[in-house]
Amino acid sequence: MENYHLNYSINTQPVPQKKKIRRNILFSQKIAPYIFVSPFIISFLVFFLYPSISTIIMSFQEVLPGETRFIGLQNYKKLLNPHFYAALRNTTIYTIWTLIILIPLPLVLAVILNSKVIPGRNFFRSAYFIPALTSTIVVGVIFRLIFGELESSPANMLMKALGLHAQQWTMHWGTGMFLMVFLASWKWLGVNILYFLSGLQNIPKELYESAEMDGAGVFTKFFRITLPLLKPVTIYVLTISIFGGFRMYEESFVFWQNQSPGDIGLTLVGYIYQEGFMNNDMGFGSAIGIVLLAIVLVINLIQLKFTGAFKKEG
Amino acid sequence: MLLFTLTMTVSLLLSGCSSEASDSGQSGKSSDGATKLTLWTFVEQHAKFYKYMADEWNKKHPDKKIELQATTYPYDDMHNKLLLSLQSGVGAPDIADIEISRFSNFLKGKPQLVELNDIVEPVKDKIVQSRLNIYSKDGKYYGIDFHVGATVIYYNKELLGKAGVDPNKIITWEDFKEAGKKVVSATGKPMITIETNDLWSYWPLIVQQGSDFYGKDGNVTLDNEINVKTLEFLKQLLDEKIAKAAPGGGHHTEEYYGFMNKGGAASVVMPMWYMGRFTDYMPDLKGKMIIRPMPRWTADGNRSAGMGGTGTAITNQCKNVKLAKEFLAFAKLSREGNIQIWKQLGFDPIRWDVWDDPALKEPNKYTEYFGKDIFNTLMSVKNEINSPTITENTPKMNQLVVQSVLYKVLKEGSLSPKQALKNVAKEMKKQ
Questions:
Q1: Is the ipTM of this complex over 0.85?
Q2: CB atoms A39 and B8 under 8 Å
Q3: Which residues contact B304 (CB under 8 A, 6 or more apart)?
Q4: Percent of chain A scored above 70 by pLDDT?
């Protein structure tokens, strides 16, 4: 009612009835916000909530054209097989490796790139970021050739130059894991550097200056000022890295096209693809998806609680 | 504003759908009266072949012209798109190529493909029968293949010559093994390569003996005696260095092409359609390779097996089923079409009554590469070509045989042939 009067007082000229109502909607403090968020809400409902609910329903079904039926928990029972365990193991180990590499390394590199004494730091900043702009699939093809099996492949030439044995890179579990982690590290290093750089820019210079006056050295400054003040960024990077690790698919796909020997490159998302599309078992694929969602959710909740991210909200 | 947002969203959604629809192009009449038919395939050469056949069709049938829109997608992409559009009931093309190892996915539940019995029956007795059964369910045919995929052995006669081995005297696999020993000691090169990441070195050998992963009744026979013995034989060849695991894991990798092109091994067992890989990727072997029937396992055993394949199907979303069927029959079941399949694609066509047609003896890049007697070899094994038994679970079975049997036995050596086959058989019986 209040709004109505407000509008009316502004519009001195009498407005036709229809127009007035439309105006009222636009100026109404109750309705206008909903209009502004509606594009997001609608796309969320159509492209996220609806598929999510469908997935949950499908995970209890056998999905076949014309013959879809509910089969209870059978899809979830099927999960207890060695391929799922292999996928879970590969994905978890891959995620841990990317966390070990893709958090400390970009952090240190960001600090170095942020320092004014490094020559050509703008060049290095962009050089580190370029891999992130490339398509994983295209890069994967190149990597696949570099790490070819023959003695004459570039990676094997390097191995021999270093006095090591040539490897059949895509044929063994250890080297396969190395390939995936290496590709991911190469590609995502620049992005994480960017996050840390922006975090570093937000640290007030005065802190360093006063620390210097108190006689703090480079390492003291790093551990006592930089690290603690970068904590919010680190938590953010950690969260998306865990998420990114568990949803990994392309890094494995480019090396084995989803047919890795002995499941050495099978990931959870790859397993969804394998069962859902390659074997036309959408119900089972959905069940794997739901379990993946649960795993990522639980891990991220634990991690956020552990790092105290929830406290700030309260 | 609300209206605006809604229209925006809705039009976005619609344009998404409609562009999808025009992509797949629901059939209709085009301006010059020709009926539009859409076709999806995953091989560029197939698309070219269909376009050629569509032109031929239009010359012969000016009264019912077709306008063929053939689109080539990458292998995985095409099968996934097709699966989803058939599941959801919109967006599928009229005609689609479906590769054999994915075909059974499309027969699960109520097949969303059109029954083709009425075009198959008239020529059924002229077609290699086993090629029809692999695309059938409950006596109804849903796909038509390009080729028989008769498995043969490609010998490098130069390497055999150095070792003094006459390929025509290799009758059985035992002979083959003995000849292999000679080749290895004379040339230092392996007699044969074996795939560890694909099926083509194992599957043909067991189908050749009338065995398979599944019995005719659909039961898992993966760990039967023949299969165990055959895998043991392959392992033995590798252990005795007569064979080498294919570089890159299979016969379709860059590593392998490079290796073989340099005369890396004296022979390879692959289906006829592998000829194209030789002509395109291993040019240096031109004139050195010859094609022979596979060695036998017993004195009167078969000398070939029909492997691989692509079933062309008509989807139930097709609006002009009658015309699509007529065109498909013309392209892939007629004598003319079968001759073109050889001429353009280098495949051994499914109609054996064209195999002795003079048109198949005309020189082309395959006869230049392998010699003129290609179809004589094929005619000689005409009645010895079994095809595999395909079931609903074939895609998964094939995947497991590669990942958990061949890799573990032939590459890793972590399991015995018997144990590996037993494990997978046990898992597949639970499906």
A1: no
A2: yes
A3: B150, B151, B152, B208, B293, B294, B381, B384, B385
A4: 90
